[in-house]
Amino acid sequence: MRKMLCFILLVMCSSSWVQSQSEEDFERVNEEAFNAAQAVMREKYAPYYWAAFVLVR
Questions:
Q1: Is the pTM above the cut of 0.70?
Q2: pLDDT at 26
Q3: 28 belongs to a structural domain
Q4: Measured between alpha carbons, how far apart are the two ends of the chain, in Å?
Q5: How buried is residue 13: exposed, middle or buried, by Cβ count under 10 Å (0-12/13-18/19+)?
Q6: Which of 32, 35, 52, 54 has minimal CB crowding within 10 Å?
């Protein structure tokens, strides 16, 4: 279960990033994509499975 949820988080973050890649500020776009993916995961799954992931700059 944890591997599947990690994959889902990664896919959601990547797809959000690709959709907004044309924007000017690379770091801001990455942070927004990661935060959006976390928000979706927060609504659906317990933090135990996904909260260990952090965005490293």
A1: no
A2: 66
A3: yes
A4: 28
A5: buried
A6: 54
pLDDT of residue 7: 73
Q: Range of 30's domain?
A: 2-49
Q: What is the three-class DSSP state of 48?
A: helix
Per-residue model confidence as pLDDT tens digits over 1-57? 666 777 777 777 777 666 666 655 666 777 887 888 888 888 888 888 778 888 777
Give the separation between CA 47 and CA 26, rounded to whole angstroms.
27
Q: Quick check: is 54 in a domain? A: no
Match 């994509």 to its residue by tokens: 33
Two tokens at 30?
A: 């990455």
17 lies in some domain: yes
Looking at residue 48, what is its pLDDT? 85
